[in-house]
Amino acid sequence: MLASGMAMIHSAIACLLAGFLAFSGCTTGSSNSSTPVAGTTVPSENVENAMQAIPGSAIAVVTVSSPVAFWSFLAENGFLLMKPELASEFQAKLQGHLDRHIGVDLSQLSGVALAMLKAGPEPEGIAIAYPVNGKLKGGQVRDGVDVLHFDDGKFAVAHKGQHLIAGDAESVDAALRTLSGQQKSIVDSGAFGSFVSNQSKGAYLSASADIAKLPIPPNPVTEELGYAGIRMTPKMVRAELSGSNDSLTSLRTQMMGLIELGLTAAKIEMHENSENFAEGVGAILAYYNLKNLGILLDPAIDGETMTIELPLELSDQSTMLVVAVGGMLAAVAVPAFMKYMEKSKTVEATQFLKKMSDAARARYAIDGKFPASVGPTPAKSSCCTDPTVEGGDKCAADAKNWQNESWLALDFAMMDPHYYRYEFVSSNEGGRESYTALAYGDLDCDGMFSTYSLYGEVVDGEVMSAADIIKIDALE
Fold it and tell me: Is-contact 28 49, C-beta < 8 A?
């Protein structure tokens, strides 16, 4: 439909947020009263009303709600930190801009829902805001509905009742048909609809997905998973995943194993960068955040449901500060964490290339020559698409792959699932005998490969190996 459809939905939400911010300067004498704006209902009701426009075919839904209108929340918390006179001028300027371009009134808005209707290279979806009053400016009236089209008709914004809907034109049409009762909404569409509703009730933020309909490479674990959801309330953050007990147990084992691998890599990095200020800070943050995650994120499994619950005991005044500081720490720690998680996988390549190199030297001492070139093994293009291995990101262990005469001479075989493909290249050009042990990996399964190589050659009858492994695009 439209390759940038979801990106434009993000733009639409940015416009809505601009509307919320337009009112953040309303700091009157009663601005800290936390009194709901007249007509504002409890959060779950407005989110449920917003979701009435989501077609039952949705595969993922995100909801955001507030106990008061968004603009009131922002104003009372002084989000923009503006002086009252400047905030008033800003509000008037921005609201005038919004009036001139869209015309609708966002001042009562307290519920937003985002929905993905189609995944893949050209995803489609919608953003829905509720309640939104007024009249959409400049739109065409179609069956009593105000509709604006952009980008040669590919993108649309519609206003029906108190629903403001934005997204690719086809998805907006589907939402309007849903509101008209021509097709079921997500809240009336069976098991996934019930799951979405339960996730959103009473939550400031929720996200739900039907895993089977997402573009995830098939593997034994994900094939047995059902729905995934996360919700944040004033008292807790709760993540929930449904699936077979075996798949959930396997997933938990993988999660905790990855955290342990990350801890090992981060601990090494802490030691190696103890004299480097910036790298050292990142390593320390990553290590202790990972250690804390290992304690907090150990999932509970009950039958066919896995849950993680984190209590929140934050005052209204402290929430913004905690989130802001946490965000700054995450900006440093998360990239470091991801780097260490990938780095932990590279231990395999370095370990087995050294083993291959030692075997080549030993073989030369016996035969007076290196084994013939062999590989890459396995012959497949990468280890990312093996449905027989948990996670689908490793090559399965298969003894038949290593029966070549050269692999047998090197006594080299991968007897456990592995991330890398291996190759041994021997040469005798111009009487100069040499070998290269190689490993190829695609750790994040994006089609970009890393190459690890260890070189050795015969000098005065003795095999000399390079001290270091050469790494090209080590973490891709």
Answer: no
